[in-house]
Write a structure and sequence with these properties.
Blueprint lengths: L1 H12 L6 E3 L13 E4 L5 E3 L2 E9 L6 E5 L6 E6 L4 E3 L2 E5 L5 E5 L4 E3 L4 E3 L4 E4 L3 E4 L4 E2 L14 E6 L7 E4 L3 E3 L4 E6 L2 E4 L4 E5 L2 E6 L4 E5 L4 E3 L6 E5 L2 E5 L9 E5 L1 E5 L2 E6 L7 E5 L2 E5 L3 E6 L8 E5 L2 E5 L3 E6 L8 E5 L2 E4 L2 E6 L8 E12 L3 E6 L17 E11 L2 E6 L10 E11 L3 E6 L8 E11 L4 E6 L8 E11 L3 E6 L8 E10 L4 E6 L18 E12 L9 E7 L8 E11 L1 E10 L6 E11 L3 E10 L6 E12 L1 E3 L5 E3 L1 E6 L8 E11 L2 E6 L8 E11 L2 E6 L7 E5 L2 E5 L2 E3 L12 E4 L3 E5 L3 E3 L10 E4 L2 E4 L4 E3 L9 E5 L2 E3 L32 E5 L6
Parallel strand pairs: 2-5, 4-6, 5-8, 6-9, 7-10, 8-11, 9-12, 10-16, 12-18, 16-19, 17-20, 18-21, 19-24, 20-25, 21-26, 24-27, 25-28, 26-29, 27-30, 28-31, 29-32, 30-33, 31-34, 32-35, 33-36, 34-37, 35-38, 36-38, 37-39, 38-40, 39-41, 40-42, 41-43, 42-44, 43-45, 44-46, 45-47, 46-48, 47-49, 48-50, ...
Antiparallel strand pairs: 1-4, 3-4, 13-14, 13-15, 15-22, 22-23, 57-58
Length: about 900
């Protein structure tokens, strides 16, 4: 008897150690014989179309298999395991009518290892739930027939009881799952480990739920729905998990629901060829981490549409260490979209991108977070369209997608946000839109829209309370390099701050026009070395003959409070500037600044043309108060090689315009603060127009100049009071005619060592005319000068109409020519005091008539030089 008991004990102990053994709660206890275990229907219990099995042990070694045999009429094989954790290194099969599903669950956990595989024609559900619940309220608990109801209804939910649920683990599993339209994995945690090979799902869905603990996961027709938020972990390391297109079925969706998702290397992806790819979606209550070169990718390899990537991370998303989120359209199919919703998003040395390499459009990238979006290191956010490398005949017509960001805070410390059309692309680059409470760009971060092909660049729009751009290589930019037009840059913010060499730029390096820049803010503040530019540059591959015809875009700045530029003119790299420049045949853009207060310290506003036939644009400033200090300048200039027309400068200041002081120039010289138009080439300089409540030039200059064959421009000023202290209003020319100066002043004109001049310093051209109208009085103090002089040409005419004119003893009003005819000076004033400048002549005169050549010889004696003072007749 003792020996019989020992034998029976040993027999009962074997089933829970290895192999496949039934537990007797449904059918008879039976130890099945391998390596090909057959689990017949007679070992279970059939209820309607459900076939139930309860197993004490379910373990398969490599090379082994387990086949669940179901008679006709069975649509579901439901196998619960009541014993310890199962280890499956073999193949799980069904022998049943097509479409029959397999439900395999073990509350103690299931571990699939190397050699594991699945061979069935129907849906497959794998779980570590404690029980299976049915639509009619019944339930099935493995090993517990007393509390189980063997329902004829469809399974409705996996039930997880108290405590932490066990894990589903896949380690070094390399298999191809075919004819399985739905593969569901529901565990406490779900782990994928190892890189032995690919886990491929062909034409079916992959659904992963890491429930964590108590609750139920409802099974609906196409979804798994946790009744409470999932708290478990989905982990992936190395290997590839791919959903592929089948011969008759599109690649299926991949869905992940968990408390956390950690992916350390490997690939999770969806591929399509002819049909539309499925969607890869993750709904995670906590944090999603992609690191160690992890790749999440959905790609269209031919004509089908690439799948979307949708991520919801309640605790945040981290993409780092070279990891990638990507969708790609290769030929005619469109790429999928990437949508991210997370508490915060950090991309550090990672990449999020959508691309199109054919006629299909690339997808959009949409990111929404109430917290922080941080982009750091060599990080790339790109949507683009491009030709296949090396295929010069391919014309890519697809459009690049958009980048749309909604964030509480956007921080970029390095990295790139980019929409682009690459070489030979015809499609338009996508738009880039950022809406955030604050945007901070630093460390060489670049936000860019570019077209390098035939398609137009996309537009960039930023809405934020505070935009900070800092660092020498940090930039917001829009670029065209071929015939496509560059997109515009629009910024709307309370504060826009540029620091330490940062820039905002729109440029054309090709036939296409550059984009415009629009800034609407309360305050714009720019520090040393910062710039806002709109440029035309010549072809990079042919700088000699490749002067191209694209026009630069306009720069428009509207500030409700102030625009302040603080630079340094002693170092060209430290200057702060807002400028549009043409280096080619295209025109420079216009620059428009409007704000109650505008301050330029060691900084400039300009529109210039430096080479070829491009025309300079107009610089316009509208302000209540304008200050130029320490070399601050507003100008429109032409370079020595320029042949186009110069642009004008228009300044309107309702209160006070102050141009003060000099800044140290490069090489030890000085650069005075100024408002000027200048030409060094053959084109004429533009006109300077100023209207102000009052003007103070304290060492500053308002002027127009020509050092080339083009004429100097005119200066037109309307103001209340005009005060010039060691500064001047000048037009200057060295080879051509001088420009005119027209001053309409309603208050006082005071010059203290000041200058008003239209002189010409070379050539045969005439000096410009000076007209001063309607001031209450003009006072020239110390060595002040009003001059319109020439060399060989005629001196300019000077006409002054004022209530009173006062000249100090060292002051001068003159209109002379060294070798030509002097100009006419007319002063219309009821009170003109110039006696201090009239010197008494000596009584004895030397006869020098024989020693001097007739000074009027060769001149037009019918128009002698004239100086005339006119007082109105009394009584008229």
């Amino acid at each position: 008897m003792k020996r019989l008991f020992v034998c029976l004990w040993g027999l009962l102990a074997v089933p829970v150690m290895a192999g496949v053994v039934t537990d007797g709660s449904v059918g008879p206890v039976q130890v099945l014989v391998g390596p090909d275990f057959r689990i017949e229907a007679a070992l279970g219990r059939q209820s309607g179309t459900n076939l139930f099995h309860s197993l004490a042990s379910f373990d398969l070694g490599q090379g082994e298999s387990a086949t669940f045999v179901a008679p006709e009429g069975v649509s579901r094989v439901i196998a619960g395991i009541s014993g310890p954790e199962s280890t499956v290194n073999g193949v799980v099969r069904t022998q049943a009518q097509p479409g029959t599903g397999l439900w395999l669950f073990n509350p103690q956990g299931i571990r699939f290892g190397e050699g594991a595989g699945f061979d069935l024609d129907g849906p497959l559900f794998l779980s570590t739930a404690a029980e299976l619940r049915f639509a009619d309220g019944a339930r099935f608990i493995p090993g517990n027939a007393a509390q189980s109801n063997f329902s004829v209804a469809e399974p409705a939910a996996f039930g997880f009881m108290g405590g932490a649920a066990s894990d589903l683990t896949f380690k070094n599993v390399a298999t191809v799952v075919e004819r399985v339209p739905r593969l569901a994995m529901v565990g406490g945690n779900v782990h994928f480990e190892g890189a032995a090979g690919d886990f491929l799902i062909v034409g079916g869905q992959l659904q992963i739920v890491a429930q964590g603990s108590v609750g139920e996961v409802r099974v609906e027709s196409s979804d798994l729905m946790p009744s409470v938020p999932s708290s478990g972990l989905v982990s992936m390391a190395d290997g590839r998990i791919l959903s592929l297109e089948g011969s008759l079925a599109a690649s299926g969706d991949i869905t992940i629901q968990a408390g956390r998702w950690d992916m350390a290397g490997g690939t999770l992806g969806i591929r399509s060829v002819l049909l539309e790819a499925g969607t890869l979606a993750a709904d995670v209550e906590g944090v999603i981490q992609l690191h160690g070169l992890a790749t999440v990718d959905t790609s269209d390899l031919a004509q089908g549409r690439g799948g979307d990537i949708r991520i919801h991370a309640g605790g945040g998303l981290l993409v780092s260490e070279g990891s990638l989120l990507n969708t790609t359209a290769t030929l005619d199919g469109d790429g999928g979209d990437i949508t991210i919703e997370a508490a915060e998003v950090v991309v550090d040395e990672g990449r999020i991108s959508t691309f199109g390499f054919g006629n299909g459009d690339s997808g959009d990238i949409r990111i929404e977070t109430p917290g922080r979006l941080r982009i750091a290191g060599a990080t790339d956010f790109t949507v683009g369209v491009a030709s296949t490398a090396g295929n010069l005949e391919q014309v890519v017509q697809g459009r690049a997608g958009d980048i749309l960001i909604r964030a509480g805070m956007l921080e970029m410390d390095g990295g790139v946000l980019n929409t682009e059309t690459l070489v030979f692309g015809v499609g338009q680059a996508g738009n880039l839109e950022i809406i955030a409470d604050s945007v901070d760009l630093r460390g060489g971060a670049v936000v860019s829209s570019a077209t390098r092909g035939l398609g137009d660049g996309g537009n960039t729009r930023i809405e934020t309370a505070r935009l900070v751009v800092t660092g020498p290589d940090t930039a917001l930019q829009s670029i065209t390099i071929f015939s496509g037009n560059a997109g515009s840059i629009e910024i709307r913010a309370s504060d826009v701050i540029l620091e330490n060499g940062a820039g905002i730029s729109a440029s054309t390096q090709g036939f296409g026009d550059g984009g415009g820049i629009l800034i609407e803010a309360d305050r714009l503040t720019m520090g040393e070395g910062t710039n806002i530019t709109s440029d035309v540059v010549f072809a990079l591959d042919d700088p000699v003959s490749g002067l191209l015809a694209g026009n630069a875009g306009d720069i428009r700045i509207f500030a409700s409070e102030s625009v302040e530029l603080n630079g340094s003119v002693s170092d060209a790299l430290a200057a702060s500037r807002i400028t549009s420049t043409s280096l080619g045949d295209g025109d420079a853009g216009n620059v428009y600044v409007q704000a109650p207060r505008v301050t330029l310290r060691g900084a400039s506003l300009s529109s210039d043309t430096l080479l070829a036939s491009g025309n300079a644009g107009t610089v316009t400033v509208v302000s209540d108060g304008l200050l130029l200090d320490r070399g601050g300048r507003i100008s429109s200039d032409q370079g020595e090689e320029a042949t186009g027309a110069g642009g004008g400068v228009d300044v309107s200041v309702s209160d006070e315009l102050v141009i003060r002081g000099e800044g140290p120039g490069v090489g030890g010289g000085t650069i005075g603060s100024a408002i000027t138009t200048t030409t060094l080439g053959s084109g004429d300089a533009g006109t300077t127009r100023i209207a102000a409540g009052s003007i103070l030039l304290d060492g500053g200059v308002i002027g127009a100049a020509s050092a080339g064959s083009g004429d100097a421009g005119d200066v037109q000023i309307r103001s209340g009071d005009l005060t010039i202290v060691e500064g001047g209003i000048t037009t200057l020319a060295t080879q051509t005619g001088g420009g005119r100066i027209d001053l309409t002043i309603g208050g006082l004109i005071t010059l203290v060592d000041g200058t008003i001049s239209t002189s010409v310093f070379g050539g045969t051209d005439d000096a410009g005319n000076i007209t001063i109208s309607r001031p209450q009085a003009i006072a020239l103090v110390r060595e002040s000068r009003v001059v319109a002089n020439a060399v060989e040409g005629r001196g300019g005419n000077t006409r002054i109409t004022a209530d009173a004119v006062f000249l100090g003893s060292a002051s001068v009003i003159e209109a002379k020519s060294e070798r030509g005819i002097d100009g006419l000076i007319e002063i219309f004033a009821p009170d003109a005091d110039i006696t201090q400048s009239v010197l008494a002549l000596p009584a004895d005169f030397a006869d020098v008539g024989q020693k001097l050549v007739d000074p009027c010889r060769g001149r037009n004696v019918s128009a002698p030089s004239t100086f005339r003072i006119v007082r109105p007749a009394v009584g008229f």
